[in-house]
Amino acid sequence: MRITIAYNLRGDNSEATAELISAEDIDRIYKTITSLQHTVSVVEVSGKPNEVIERLLDSEPELIFNLAEGTIGSSREAFYPGLYEQMGVPFTGGNASLLHLNLDKHLAKTVLAARGIRVPQGVLLTPKDQVLPDGLHYPLIIKPNSEGSSIGISQDSVVESSDAARIRITEMLNFYPAGLVVEEFITGRELSVPFLENYPGKILDIVEHTFDLDKTGGKYNIYDYGLKQGTSVADSVHVICPARINAQEEKSVLEMARQVFDIMTCPDLGRVDIRLHTNGEPYFIELNPLPSLHPDASMMVAAKIRGLEFREVIRLIIRSAARRYGLALRLPRKSVKGDYRSGEQRATARELGIQVGRLQPGIQNSITDVKGVRVGHFTRIEDNVPVPGQAETTSVRMGVTAILPAGHAYTNRLVAGGFILNGVGEMAGLTQVIETGWLETPIMLTNSHSVGRVHAGVINQMIKKYPRLGTDTDVVLPVVGEADDSFLNDVRVGSCSSQDASKAMEAATDKGVLQGSVGAGVGMTSFDFAGGIGTSSRIIDMLEGGGFTVGVLVLSNFGKMRNLTIDGAVVGKQLDKEFDYAGRREMSEGSVIVVVATDVPLISSQLNRLSRRAALGLGRTGSYAASTSGEIIVAFSTGNRKPRPSPSSSNFITLKCISDYHINLVYEAVVEATEEAVLNAIFCSGGMSGRLQRWCPAIPHDRVLEILRKGNG
Description:
This protein is an alpha+beta fold. Helix 1 (23-35) packs across helix 11, helix 3 runs antiparallel to helix 4 and helix 16 crosses helix 17 (664-683). It is globular and about 85 Å long.
């Protein structure tokens, strides 16, 4: 693709140019985009509009990578996106209306406050209206209304009396006649929440900036202009990611960020700045649709925590814009042997624009959106493996996926349930879960011949943690589900060990879940395409109790291409004609394991019923529960816990559960999340080779989207 980087160059160190970009940063971004195999031009867009247009047209861009902040007026950031729109050239980032709105800080806060977002109480003052209203609580902060990069902000910006406020207002209006925001200063912590639209879950980890006030000599922890410009005390700024805040604070901050990004429709990338009050309440401060891409900026710091290097962030921004405008990043083609790369994930269905159902996904669109739930993988991909006792070599495609429920499930058990739609499959421990209604171990997923060893691995891990297990306490029965990966994996040598199970548990994280051909799903086949692990989530808003989450993770190893159904369209009918039948799996109908997690308080009978509804989600993708397949579902709720019995335990326990009158929304959420999780298992895989030179192709994203657009499903 031909990409033009449009920017305003910072030629000096004055405050007037503080928002502009340095030559060093331009060079870094130019080299990065070039390394992504694009043809890149750089165009400095300062100056007369007619000359700018001529330079841009001469570069013949298919996409403009917009870094231009503008140099003149309170609408300067909006000028360039408006120009690109009039030229008919696609560009990265927000449009003119978004950038105009967000540079006007007071207007942005007014709009968001009207939509229920908490903002500091304040007022806009101009040279014609300098009256400071009564009723504002001191201290106040006074800052320019239409500036970025903390221009005009210093320790003196915070005032503690009306006299100090009047002096500061008069002084500041001489420098910033476009207006000042005067608002209540939120004592607390300085947080930023970066956003990458094309990254799973979209919202990255919360970044906190802390300040050594002894070094700065200041009184207030604010990221002022001097600190951002690298003054002599700049080393007093410390960046912490993820921010060290408690679970409730994290939830409220991320929810506010998600709401802001939804209301403002901020495409490709962005950053929300939030002040977390000492009382734990978040306050919106600013949305930046053109956040800094410097390696030390919040965006890149948060990305690195997720394993995204600078190059990958730039690639995701370009990919997001290209999909929004329908631009082809490369010629569509079918995947071929050798395409897959271990540890990498292709786009999810939602990232491609496929919106399953009507409910809102969680921040990560993953089972880990349920607070406390963690997922870890162990994956083994190996060729030329000797077969013991045979004069041949073979291929191994096997792994383990561990789902760790919130908290200590053994000592503080979770309410659980399950359902078997078709039972030609195995989930060790499920009979006890259904009978007793409790979950007390991790849920492990693997291949058919590894259930015993993975079962042993869980017990070994738990004995390390609870040395009196089985002596002072009763024994445990780990929950281990399986699917048959023998089409690609030579199960004579490709079975997992107890150590592999331990590695999967130790790798568990509550961050984004890697999907596709990974972990237990590395050797699995879904609808004749590669793909095994998929996940999705849904948010449920209830007047009583607030927001709840339903998350689903699947080990998908079922289906025929001809039946593949995406959001109601049977796209498999067309795809089936376009792929060779030779080489497809015929001897096995496969199977699927579904793990449902929720923080909605439910009792066991309700979780059994919820599990049945997950089976409806499988049906929406094209499953008919073939006679030789296994469709097994297990579900648990973090909203009800029970400590293990002890001699002092009461004769009675108390559980809270949702009324059946209101449970239908939970059913709807699990159907949607299950459907989308199965699709993600396929969409995220890049294809997978296996034994006997077999090859499971990746589903062709572009072709699927074309079929959906034409309504040929």
